[in-house]
Amino acid sequence: MTDFIVYIDQSTVSDGKLEELRSAMRELVDFVEANEPEILAYDVYFSADGSQMTVMHMHANQDSLEFHMEVAGPKFPPIGEFIEFDSIDVYGRLSEDLIERLNDKASTLGSGRVSVHELHRGVDRVSNN
Length: 129
What we know:
Layout: E1 5-13, H1 18-35, E2 41-46, E3 52-59, H2 62-72, H3 76-79, E4 83-91, H4 96-109, E5 110-117
Parallel strand pairs: 4-5
Antiparallel strand pairs: 1-3, 1-4, 2-3
């Protein structure tokens, strides 16, 4: 079984804030790239009409996600002025402490929910196992 964690959050973009949000997210992605060498992927997507933002990141293990929350966490609250946070879906096994931190993030940025989905069965062709 894999320890990979896939994190997906979704937010509604506040009216008139799309360009400011795009700029803030460019800065956040640059920060993650420079400061989180263990993160496997960190991607930001916008819907065609610019009303929704999705952030996806992939981690080799829970430690990587915990590090992301620690290092990038202080960068999240200012982004809250540009969005209404809708949801976090995490695929993989997480500690109760990390789930609590994600719930804190969701309530800081909006009224979104956090759902954790544990792996039942799958194929892993990414790792060297």
